[in-house]
Amino acid sequence: MTPPVNAELGQISELFMLLASIAYVVALVFFVLDLVKSSSTIGSLETRLADEQAAPARSLAGVGARGGSSTAAAAGSPATADASMDYGSGPRRRSARIAVSLTVLAAVVHGAAVLTRAIAAHRVPWGNMYEFCTTGAFLVAAIFLITLTRKDLRFVGSFVVGLVVIMLCAATVGFPTPVARLIPALQSYWLIVHVSIAVASSALFTITFAMSVLQLLQTSREAKLLAGKADTARFLRLVPSALSLENLSYRLNAVAFVGWTFTLMAGAIWAEQAWGRYWGWDTKEVWTFVIWTVYAGYLHARATRGWTGTRAAWLSIVGYLCIVFNFTIVNIYFSGLHSYSGV
Amino acid sequence: MKQDVSQDTRDTAGAPGARADVVLPSLGVFGTLRWAWTQLTSMRTALFLLLLLAVAAVPGSLFPQRPANPAVVTQYIQDNPDTGPVLDWFQLFDVYSSVWFSAIYLLLFISLIGCVVPRAIAHLRAVRSTPPRTPKRLSRLPVYGTLEVPADRARDAGLTPSSAAEQAAAVLRKRGYRVDVRDAGTDRPSVGAERGLAKELGNLVFHTSLIGVLVSVAVGGLFGYNGQKVIVEGDSFVNTLIGYDSFSPGSNFSDDQLEPYSIRLDSFDVRFDREQESHYGQPLDFTANVTTQDGPGEDEAQQVLKVNAPITIGGTNVYLVGNGYAPVVTVRDGEGNIAQQGPVVSVPSDGLYTSLIVIKAPDAKPDQLGFVGFFLPTAFVDEKGVSFSRDPDPFNPQLNLNSYYGDLGLDDGTPENVYVLDTENLTELNSRNNDDGGIVLGVGQTYDLPEGKGSVTFDGLKRYVALDIHHDPGELGALVFSTLALLGLSASLFIGRRRLWVRTGEHPDGRLMVEYGLLARGEDHRLPAEGAAVEKLLADRFLVPTGSAGDHSHQDAAPAGTGQSHTNAKDKS
Ligand code: HEM
Known about the structure:
The complex is a heterodimer of chains A (343) and B (573).
Chain A lengths: L6 H47 L40 H28 L7 H22 L6 H18 L14 H38 L15 H34 L7 H19 L8 H24 L10
Chain B lengths: L1 H10 L17 H12 L2 H15 L1 H4 L7 H10 L3 H7 L9 H30 L14 E7 L1 H6 L4 H14 L3 E5 L7 E6 L1 H27 L1 E8 L3 E3 L7 E4 L12 E11 L10 E11 L6 E7 L4 E3 L2 E18 L4 E6 L3 E2 L6 E7 L6 E9 L2 E3 L5 E3 L8 E9 L19 E5 L8 E4 L3 E3 L5 E18 L3 H20 L2 E10 L5 E10 L5 H16 L10 H5 L5 H7 L4
Antiparallel strand pairs in B: 1-24, 2-3, 3-23, 4-6, 4-22, 5-7, 7-8, 8-9, 10-11, 11-12, 11-22, 13-14, 14-15, 15-18, 16-17, 18-19, 18-20, 21-22, 23-24
Helix pairs in contact in B: 3-7, 5-6, 7-10, 9-12, 10-11
Bound molecules: protoporphyrin IX containing FE.
Protoporphyrin IX containing FE sits at the interface of chains B and A.
């Protein structure tokens, strides 16, 4: 028999969670500040350059090669950030550095919160909505930070950290649940396998969602610039070209899709053990399937003429909206076999 | 054929296709059929059908579904007399067996077969053929580099262009490339190499396995069966058709599929959370101790059945899907005889096991007797005088009943629902609303019915379990094929398919030049890294430093993620 739940430690965990949220909010402020500041720095730099050289804005050759995406990121073009998304190019961004440091700090405290909750409950920290949200948000932050060590994705920082803050708010405001043991239906090692991969894949999808939204914004901006119109969304200068966004989010989506496929299979195996059938079109199963099919469609779109670029990005966004819908509306309002203690 | 279409959609994206994408139908039946087939198996149709399938699956989560909840569907149609029948006509209560849903996935799978077969043939051909011929100018490939071996070293090592090509081929073979040395013996020999054919294989395995999964599901639907059974502590179940409370056979089911094993419920243990204020009374553990027997006269075995841990017996799996209380009740009739005795299954309606109960005594004379009410494990009375349960454990078990006499309506042969009492033709004896009041019984208590109609006694309490029993011969197939699909998918998405060529030659001053170029098929962001790795291996082989003069790979590699180089990285061959 497992020892009793440690309620005191559970409260410490909640305190950590609160501290982490505050740190994230401050990080978010700095990420936004960075966008504002850097785009104006680049802007004024450019004006000076333009004045000095009296040269017209560099042409955006080669635009529109594939489905509205553009290759405007040719080296040196100031219209978008370096497409390689490596560090070292562009002006120093102090706010961004502070923002990243704060995110690291927040994530460490957040990790401690998740860990103490797990220790307090003597089990994996994903047994109810509160825990899906908090652990999921931690994974989003962690995956983002890990990616940051290799690629300069600070431009999605405000987006990703914003989503983390929303997830934490949803957890503490929407689904507050004290630490508890698991109900018998959830007592299975498949909980560990199935839910962890589901949460990790969703975290990846969260990041690609942010990138797809930016891709759409960038695409329309590139088209505008090409048409000789004024640059109204200057902060997108920090963001790489639509095409490089598309390529990177494709790579992440591919990983997440394999994860989701595994989630679906592990869920089916667990359903077989718990309810006697591996697939029964329970509402939760329906939505897992819908999400899987939409992302399969996304992968197909990437190989279909006329469907790359903008349309693929839309599919990636729709897929993510389905995930959010599945997680919120379906979990809370739809009846089905899936029920979680506490909600 | 199909592959070509899909390939060049990616490969020469943006460039006007050399051939028309849509072949206009030539006259005649065959022409039209061929045209339809081409359309059906096109990538665009597959995409469309996939998205359509996603949309079509949604209504099944919005409306109650018959296979899962037949009673809820009936109720829904009753509650919505206007829209209900219309929705029903559109099969929105049977979405996943509906004509339109089936049509979508069947078309998708036909398209899938039409897609996979030609691609499998093309792939087989590709596996058999040698790596493609060496391009004239390697420097035009997206990743390119050269190494040079100084004249004296080349001379000392006895390196000629041909032997260098052979050595390069050996290096590449070791790295997993299929290689082919051509123009050996000439002054410009070259090596053609290719790796990552498993990418396409993985894709084919993935798509084929999806067909396997579908077939397995169909096999389960045809030859499987499942049934439900409630067993009270001390009682047994025998696996025969009449043993089940409800039973749904697959379309090809026959009785002799059932093996006559038996299961006896010896005891059922329940544990609730008693530590935590916030989750007080939440269930922590359900354990059914059962005795099983593979058939009459076989050895008995003790087994433990838990949620998430089914037992396997006689080709079926037995699952613990529910539990509750079965109060033991004795009903005596107006003539003083026992009309009904034994445990009566009650249906829990909340987490505190407030349970609905119906007791029928059709053998009672002179009038049949019926009771409806609820069972409370830990009864309390609130300030308004209403009884309620405060705990799921039986600390103060209590029966609250209304009683009726008259015709229970069990004799006309219509199937009865044991959990419902139809009071239409009955006369009320006891209820909260009449003078005699409702019946309230603690364990061991007896209540004498008004008008000398008989009595009811609450003798004691037992627990029961609700079991689901399943046989699904497609299950293993579904598991195997979905695992294959997962492996194939990973191979397809993560293996890079690359072509690589090395050409050697001798400079007039005696230096030996080795140049190489790489090309990816499809998306491959690791191509520059592969180029660097190969360059290092070749440099080690020829004992020269990497990055020697003329190496373009770094210039080319730097903007690898950019549109320009990306487009280049697409296979143009
Ligand atoms: C049951 C329906 C289908 C599903 C769930 C599905 C799913 C997928 C997925 C997830 C991928 C990406 C992974 C990979 O490259 O292996 C993919 C790729 C592919 N599928 Fe399908 N597919 C289906 C039907 C079809 C059909 C009907 C066709 C033929 C028209 C087709 C042709 C392809 C091709 C050519 C690729 C490779 C794309 C590339 O090169 O990236 N698929 N499919």
